[in-house]
Design brief:
Layout (H helix, E strand, L loop, with lengths): L15 H4 L3 E2 L1 E6 L5 E6 L2 E5 L4 E6 L11 H9 L1 E6 L5 H6 L10 H5 L3 E3 L6 E3 L4 E12 L6 E12 L4 E2 L2 E2 L1 H4 L2 E3 L5 E3 L12
Antiparallel strand pairs: 1-13, 2-3, 2-6, 4-5, 5-10, 6-9, 7-8, 9-10, 11-12, 13-14
Length: 201
């Protein structure tokens, strides 16, 4: 099968997200200029550079009370900081609960019963029980094609790792089984890993 996106696919559901999988989930926490906290998951998320460490996430919709975007991007515009909280399988239901379109000012930490801890390098909250947290300073917001599409890039200024996830000096993802986004309403968790050596190694 071949299709041009602008002409439609003719399938019951859009296959694009099912093709580009698995995608890590960035559980983004932000704080607005009034000190109100927000937490929302984004599956258009990844690490993009080592030195300095940098990450990105993309927001692709908008809320009536936020104009051309949602709370996360609007808050980052105000404060210039955000935190990426890594999602483990055990937190799947709490993550899903925070994905709702709630009114501006609602605190998803409280809604999902998640422990809120102050970040060390930025004025933002993080999930205290997450396997890892990446504290980030905004480097740029890029307007993408499409009415509500924005890519947010940030430099990582602080990294937290939960002690039980460190095994023999390595961050062991099989211990907490990170959650990944697939297509449709589907998710997966990482339970098995294998290693490959590059040529000439």
């Amino acid at each position: 099968m071949f299709y041009r996106p602008e002409q439609g696919h003719g399938l019951p559901h859009n296959p694009f997200n099912a093709i580009v999988t698995p995608r890590p989930i960035g559980w983004i926490s932000t704080r607005d200029g009034n000190g109100e906290d927000n937490l929302a998951p984004y599956s258009f998320f990844n690490a993009v550079a080592y030195t300095p460490p940098q990450v990105m996430f993309a927001s692709t919709s908008a809320k009536d009370d936020r104009g051309d975007t949602k709370d996360s991007v609007a808050n980052i515009r105000e404060t210039g900081v955000f935190c990426v909280n890594i999602v483990e399988y055990a937190m799947k239901d709490q993550m899903n609960l925070t994905s709702g379109m709630y009114p501006r000012g609602d605190d998803e930490f409280e809604l999902a019963g998640l422990p809120k801890v102050q970040c060390d390098t930025i004025d933002c909250a993080r999930i205290g029980s997450a396997p890892a947290n990446l504290e980030c300073r905004l480097t740029q917001i890029v307007k993408l094609e499409g009415e509500f599409n924005f890519a947010v890039l940030g430099e990582v200024t602080g990294i937290h790792m939960r002690d039980d996830c460190l095994k023999d000096g390595l961050f062991d993802v099989t211990h907490f089984q990170p959650l990944a986004r697939l297509g449709y309403r589907d998710y997966a968790s990482v339970t098995k890993v294998f290693s490959l050596k590059r040529p000439q190694e």
